[in-house]
Amino acid sequence: MSFTVRCVDCGYESPFFSTSTQCPRCSNQWREVDYDYDSIAQTLPAQLPLRPFDLWRYRELLPVRSPNPALSLGEGGTPLIRAVNLGMMLGNPNIYIKDERQGPTNSFKDRQAAITITALKEAGITELVAASTGNVAIAYSAYAARAGIKLWAFVTSLVPAVKMREIALYGSQVIKVTASYDQAKRLATEFALQRGLYYDMGARTITSIEAMKTLAFEVSEQLTALHGPLLAGGKSYWRTPDWYVQAISGGMGPLGVVKGFNELKRIGLVNHIPALAPIQAEGCAPMVTSWKKGLETAEVVLAPRTRIETLATGDPGRAYKFLRQHVNETHGVFESVSDEEAYRAMHVLAKMEGVSAEPASAASFAGLFKLIRAGIIKPHETVIVNCTGHTMPTEPYALGDNWTRNVEIPQQTQEKPQDGLLAALNNIAPDRFPRVVIVEDSPESRRLVRRILQSQGDFEIFEAGNGRQGLDLIQRELPNLVILDLMMPELDGFAVLDQLKARPETANIPVIVASAKELTPEEKSRLTGQIQALMQKGDFLNDEFLEEVRALLK
Ligand SMILES: *Cc1c(COP(=O)(O)O)cnc(C)c1O
Ligand SMILES: [Zn+2]
Asked: According to a count of CB atoms within 10 Å of the terminal CB, is the N or C end of the chain lower?
């Protein structure tokens, strides 16, 4: 599959790497992916009927070299539900709910997580830092768990505790930041920078925007299945809605969706792009107020005043410029709703349509009600409302204590905004973690061991793919623990062990041998007294092994 990344400022084109975060020529972080639309137009339509209705059916238009079925949780392909009762109430029979609650972790962030984590795994990333108002961290955590990637999730203290517990349950480290979401993002950026870890840049992350496109693709296919193709000028097109309504925080959803419709148009599958109606919470509506004032750059909301934390981006940055342009070009509108309006809409939606949505999603519906009442959305128009997410409970007792690290950042001052951040960084993680060297020739087994260790606490993990490298690594790092495979090319585990024991500086490093095969009695006796534990590969997840690891690292 061929795709390139184009800088929206200088137009420079480069190959796509999920780990590259800016334009190599001008350092701009806003870039777009281009595909070979002409050839996709030739091949994709014939392929679609053969593929399951999930997000990967559009793989030619996704920035992943090879889809990884092993990571899939059944993302995408959510139902489109006709809001019959709301339609009667509002006098508009064509309102459809795109039910993103039915994604694997119950929000539309699953699309973003599926594509981003697949691309990061493809690039060999093993740790990832992300700031989140809750749902991104939950979705990333689930996929990261499957991929053997560790997530450091920076969430604000206003994120509901049930969501934080959900993140922790998947094995991610929750870092609870008592500050605004924008400050939490800055802290996460610094943390990633300091540790040299990959940082997720929200709406600037190419894979995220690309993932959100699939909403446009699905909705068009679903409307077409319901109402048949649209015939115009002797040609047959997929149907598109007149409006796409979504509650926004950073605006990634509509940015992706509009790109999706534009691509469908470019391929010749649709002839019309819907009007966008991004909805914000009144207490944090920088894009809405700036748009209504006719500003080209958003006025930042420093202290958001909404209880709907999911929508608490106070500083949208350049996302506003792009979204403003799309809203204007599609003859859409920005609108805001109060928290109370969102809560009321939440009740209406649940009681009239049987759809229980979180307050952020309910804000989309409150926005819909407002726009229909104002006559902006007309009675005959077809409207898609993205029901972005469901709430989710993880019982408090399932996790025990100490599953957050708490950071307080003092009130931000204009002069030295970095001071509080840097002090807070030191509270997130101690400087030195116990060090573990994994010597194992199979990359998948190394990743499994890494993932198991990461689920048990914080370790600095080093990996070697054969005995020779392993020995060098151990001599250099003098780790607290070695996990050693026996059957390896170059130098096998027995030889590594002999050499470790022969040198005073490595003789006392504890070793756990992990072996895929049954050992013969002679082999077992060779290991006696030399190692701390012997694990057959299937045993990795048993408590004994984990107890052993914890005890050795105390
Ligand atoms: C992230 C999120 C939003 C806001 O989406 P953006 O397109 O990123 O602004 C809305 N609702 C829910 C449930 C979300 O998780
Ligand atoms: Zn550039």
From this structure: C
Alpha-carbon distance 486 to 481, whole Å?
16
Q: How far is the CA of 249 from the centre of ligand 1 (A)?
A: 6
Question: Burial, 361: exposed, middle or buried (Cβ in 10 Å; 0-12, 13-18, 19+)?
Answer: buried
Write out the CATH class of domain 80-104+211-397: alpha beta
pLDDT at 89 over 80: yes
pLDDT tens figures, 108-153: 999 999 999 999 999 999 999 999 999 999 999 999 999 999 999 9
pLDDT for res 490: 81
State how far Cα 481 lies from the chain centre.
32
**Ligand 1 atom nearest 361 alpha carbon:** 11
**Which residues does ligand 1 sit against, CB inside 6 Å?**
107, 109, 135, 247-253, 310, 358, 360-361, 388-389
Task: Please provide residue 209's backbone torsions phi and psi, each rounded to the nearest 5 degrees.
Answer: -60, -45
**Structure-token match 């509002």, residue found:** 90
Contact 211, 111 (CB under 8 A): yes
Q: Give strand pairing partners of 82.
A: 96
CATH of 425-552, picked from 3.40.50.2300, 3.30.1360.40, 3.40.50.880, 3.40.630.30, is 3.40.50.2300
The string over 184-223, giving b where at least 16 C-beta atoms fall within 10 Å of a residue's C-beta and e elsewhere, is bbbbbbbbbeeeebbbbbbbbbbbbbbbbbbbbbbbbbbb
Buried-state track 230-242, b at ≥16 Cβ within 10 A, e below 16:
beeeeeebbbbbb
